[in-house]
Amino acid sequence: MTAQTTVTTSTTSLRPIADYDRPLWQRLLLTRESAIIALVVIVVVFASIVVPNFGSKITMTYLLLDIFPILIIALPMTAIIVTGEIDLSVASIVGLSSVLTGVLTQAGVPFGLTIVLALAAGLLAGVINGFLITAVGLPSLAVTIGTLALFRGIAVGLLGTTAVTEFPEFWTDLAKEKIGSTGIPVVMIVFVVLAIAFAILLHFTKFGRGVFAIGLSPEAARFSGVDVARTKMLLYVLSGAVSALAGIYFTLRYGSARGDNATGMELQVIAAVLLGGVSIFGGRGALHGVIAGVVLIGVLGSALRLANVTSDVINIITGALLIAAVISTSVIAAVKNRRRTGRKLQVAGARAATTA
User: Fold this and answer.
1) Half-sphere exposure of 264 (CA within 13 A, CB side)
2) What average pLDDT does this structure show over 47-68?
3) Main localisation, per the record (predicted)?
4) Distance in angstroms (rounded) separating the CA atoms of residues 246 and 253
């Protein structure tokens, strides 16, 4: 009787790790990321049937060209938000990079060197953000709001209200070039390379585990050996560099360098990241969900524009999706907490019954 009681007690005291007590298919399919991917498929199929010309090859080409800068900026933004921080200056870095590309080209600097210098400016902008957040200890929201205004002000100050529109034809054509007859832009190769690199970095390396640990608890991560300051600094530097790359593309794609280029793009990026399942509170998220979130916003915008819906209505829909994403995160967390509490009560009840 005693041995039976001992065995039963040890069995009921086992506690499954959260989420891993479910079957594999549930862990793969019953997730926010899978839900967003399914929603993208549904919206694409529905829009192809209802909206004229949405399913054409040229629509796909322009859709991918439109969302490319948001796709690449969302990659480092995902990691930053996972740590519990934010970067609102990305669109201003895009504008600054665009202006530098125009000014340097206008000054006769070789375009290869122009690209290097514009990327260097983005790196420097990321270093400024990272230094103020990690070394000085200022909140990322306050810092990046300030640098948003700073970088945009520099961009507008360099060009004023004028625009540079003369760029090497080879580069402007390359920004819009398609892969054979597929209709897929060449720049998507750049996105695929960056997406693979960030996916490996975030989900399959010690550095990536540190990123998630910081989001869950910076203090616990620090005591576990994670260099919190260095990790955040690197993420902001990567964000600055990728945003500068988006600025170069933006300039070449539209053939215009202006100080107000990409104004408001940071809101689209953040909306897509949160919609893709990344928690605004940090510690949770996956890149495939974020990519699906960007595509969903792009598909909705493209379909609604083809249906002659005004930009104001599109912004309202995007805002509603963002609010729904934030609320759903809290609701899902509350449901999971209730389930875990129920399991703990069941374990406690089993223990009490065994003891009795």
Assistant:
1) 3
2) 92
3) membrane
4) 10
